[in-house]
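Why do we care about 3D structure at all? Because function follows from shape, and shape follows, mostly, from sequence. That is the central idea of this module. The next example makes it concrete: a single protein chain, its amino acid sequence, and then its structure expressed as tokens.
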Amino acid sequence: MSRRLISITLLFLILSSLSNVASAQPPPARLSSGNDLSIMARDPFQIFDNFYFVGTGEVASYVIETSDGLILIDTLWDLEGFREYLLSQIREVGLDPADIKYVLILQGHRDHYGGAPGLQEVIDAQFGTAEQDRRMMVADFGEYAPRIDFIIEDGGTLTLGDTTLNFELTPGHTPGTTSLRFSVFDDGTEHLAYMHGGPGVRTDDLDAIKTFIADLERIKQIPGIEVQVAGHFDSYLSGTGDLFDRAERLANRQADEPHPWITPAEFQLFLEERIALTRQVLEEPP
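And the structure:
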């Protein structure tokens, strides 16, 4: 074999190798007003004794503090600066990212899981999501998809220290959207919180839409829910203010005023509103 042929062959092999490496990387996320940290950076804050907001002006990320470490909910984007932003948010509320024991990814959209691979380089935690959304991540990110250490199943639980989370699979926004029930504490008083992982339907499948409606009806029947936790800043009942309106009311709350997140009747109305909006999707012409 001639030197020229050998050189060409080696060049082809090198280029093929680089191509394989590149294919393992996800396509770059598109910068927009919704994920530009120069626009969307927000101060983190404590909502309850054991519950903290550490997200952005568009997408929420939360930390649950337990007696045996922290649970992080969703990981934000994979754009430059987001990992450092999320870690600094956690530190600003007085917590240590090294204490994160579990990371829960509630839906397979990039704004909720994109930051996971980067976090896995710097924290030693177990990452969990539903199987259907794990497949979404692999389809989107290929080999760069986050490592998933455990699969969340409907009716499952996760206990860390003095805290137990109850999982429900609530598909419709994504095939494996996960919702949570857990306790929060306001000056020591316990309240039941519910976080729907994706309360807006995003599918054209009529059967899936009907299932989504039936599931919202089911959630309405769960007794004792007092607190709604939203994955996006505006996922609340129309006319009642967004996440940051509530944060302002919380910051200015007087001793005799109710906690702005403890609104059981409002949560019921929110579910009814979402049911009505989803029924409209069914009525739209194909």
